Amino acid sequence: xxxxxxxxxDRTLAPLRLAYDxxxxxxxxxxxxxxxxxxxxxxxSALVAEVDLARLAAxxxxxxxxxxxxxxxDAGDLxxxxxxxxxGEWYWGIVKWLRLLAETLLVAYVGxxxxxxxxxxxxxxxxxxxxxxxxxxxxxxxxxxxxxxxPELVFALVFVxxxxxxxxxxxxxxxxxxxGALGKLFAEVVENxxxxxxxxxxxxxxxxIAAMRFAVVPQVLPNFASYALLRxxxxxxxxxxxxxxxxxxxxQDLIEAIRKFYYADVSAILLLIVATVILIDLGTExxxxxxxxxxxxR
Amino acid sequence: xxRTPQPASAGSVALRRExxxxxxxxxxxxxxxxxxxxxxxxxxxxxxxxxVLLMFVGLWWVGFSPxxxxxxxxQLGTFVVLMVPPDFGTVAKLQIYLxxxxxxxxxxxxxxxxxxxxxxxxxxxxxxxxxxxxxxHFLARRGLDTVRGVDTLIWALIWINVxxxxxxxxxxxxxxSDMGTFGKLFSEAIEAADRRPGEGVIAxxxxxxxxxxxxxxxxxxxVMLSQVLYYFESNTRSxxxxxxxxxxxxxLHLAEQIRTLExxxxxxxxxxxxxxxxxxxxxSTQLRTRIVGSxxxxx
Lengths: 298, 299
Hints:
The complex is a heterodimer. Chain A is mostly helical. Chain A has a domain at about 90-295: MetI-like (MetI-like fold, Orthogonal Bundle), CATH 1.10.3720.10. Chain A has helices spanning about 10-50, 55-60, 60-70, 85-90, 95-125, 135-150, 150-165, 165-190, 195-205, 210-240, 250-260, 265-295. Chain A contains twelve helices and no strands. Chain B is mainly alpha-helical. Chain B folds into two domains: about 10-20 and about 20-85, no CATH class; about 90-290, MetI-like fold. Chain B is built from 13 helices and no strands. Chain B has helices at about 10-20, 25-30, 30-35, 40-60, 65-85, 90-125, 135-150, 150-165, 165-190, 195-205, 210-240, 250-260, 265-290. In chain B, α9 packs across α11 (about 210-240). The longest helix of chain B has about 35 residues, at about 90-125.
């Protein structure tokens, strides 16, 4: 019962082959065109951004030198010796720094919490599937976009002038930026929610708010919490530089140490920040995995 | 969870009216549905109360007070009024602003690109299923965490020490902090890849490098590209502020105009930043859709 596949006659094959070659060459042309555009973009950007590889190569040794210098005392009895010789002296300001670090965490937390509240309130209006009022949806979307696009440091700069120096402008800047960032993600989550429960709740006599509360919120809450935790970690990093513009937290001391070349202080504060960020990263990751597991098991 | 979104149908709305009319009857017939379980309620309440309480403690700590808010919001209102209409002053100023904007985009583009290129090998080394050595995995992951834990602005300050003030330091700063992010994201994508194609490559006589090239890379490349495009947009936003510490871009002018209370210039700068970011958002989404065929943002 062996049957050989019959080769098509050349006459029928020729147009097929031509079409194949054309398709391949079109694809190749497209790839080459993309490559050329990419290279051009790189060259133009390099020109605009004043990329100077020669300067980088010539000065690259400054990076390890700078990093090495961070771990050497620059004043006092131990000047020029490694900071590890006297950790107590290295972390001379530990009490103050820990207080500022706590303030940084608090700024990040309160900012995230307020942003969560704002995003929660707006995402239902902005979501395509449950947003009933087109005007409200348009306004909510544009507002979220604005909040998200203007960097928090710019908000902080303006708020510092309006509210005075201190952590309050930092909190508000983070809250507004978080509203925008979370609001977009939340709206996407809501758009992916199952609409069956909403119809059920509506048919059972629920008005819009009750339908959201009992049909949508239970579906989306684990995802919301997971995104909020992720955002909290981002905001801790953001809050650590809020002090650069006078909006509270440990950034104030850090920028002062950097500008005044207190090398040992810079490394001490940086290590504190990095350790905190890593700890929070690990903690929130664990929590998020549990939340996602919760959602999967539903 | 993947049903196409659609508004509650007209039928369920009609049912709703009917149900609302008979609410009393329903309440009488099924009383247990309308009563909440008190123990569960209390537990939920306690769980929700802790974070809320912490929020209020935090608000008190940062010096929140109604009158301070009121005063601040009043000030903000004044600023907003002063911002209209947006204005850039002279044509020479406009030229400076536009050049700074171009610088910002260039910084974001180059920083993202170089970071992605550098992060590919790092991602492979940090992935458990490629380099099975525990120590290497641990060191790579913690190293990436450290790089990522330092904010872009701090990286900018460090790079200024090496290459001097200017946009080049900005490129290097974006590159540094993104390398950590990409390294982590890439290694996670690689770990999530299906291992069977790789096993197939080995079974048909391929080596370790063949396995990576033909078994893993085709699976993860679209994911990586999509993440890179997504970050290009977010980096444009980061690049708008690194000018505050002198690492090039529009941030320098923005900070300067805010500090000198030139609100019309501020609103103009914010508007052109918004327009640019929106443009890049559209571009990168389109590219992503064409390359990956999905509009879903990577998480």
